[in-house]
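re: ur question from earlier - yeah i can do the single chain one, its not a big deal. heres the input i used so u can compare w yours
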Amino acid sequence: MNILVSDSLSPKGVEVLERAGFSVAVKTKLSKEELLQEIGNYEALIVRSATKVTKEVIEAGNRLRIVGRAGTGLDNVDTEAATRRGIVVMNTPGGNTITTAEHTMSMIAAMSRKIPQATQSMKAGKWEKNKFMGSELYNKTLGLVGLGQIGSYVTKLAQGWSMNVIGYDPYLAVDRAKQMGIEVVELDELFHRADVISVHTPLTNETRGIINTQTMAKMKDGV
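and the output i got, formated as tokens:
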């Protein structure tokens, strides 16, 4: 099987494929036109988030059998077009769970403590301690929209910081919510109660624009 890797991938990942007997071509930063010209030579395509696997790309891949996403989200892959062609679309939902959850908590802490603003102030030669005191996350309420693998791990980290976690996920089983120690609420209630809100959902028609002018108007000041 000939495999095209069109986004940056760890050399170890490429080695695994080659040891399994596959022929792998790594060609990153292809333009749309270049990808359309190349894709017809391969049975499999591996992407991350940069490559857009559109209906046009799928139709040009007359030998294409598999599209693999080295990551969680599939919003850059036209899954409907692939399904119509009988092309299998795969992702790696657990591959970046811990990294993303840690990054989420780092961003929450940075915003709460105004670290980016304080850093810029320090670089400008100023010492504005009182201006950038920030606030504690202890006992604050974190609202999570989406409680899949990443949302679940963020819950664990936030609880370790003594945050109260509430969440919205229409697909989460009641037993699983109890195991996580999380209070599941409706979306409007989450927007009203949360001091911090973090979204961990795939981009779909259902979730697109879930944070908008109307929902932001329901939130606390400074959320």
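The first strand starts at residue 2 and ends at 5. not sure if urs matches, ping me
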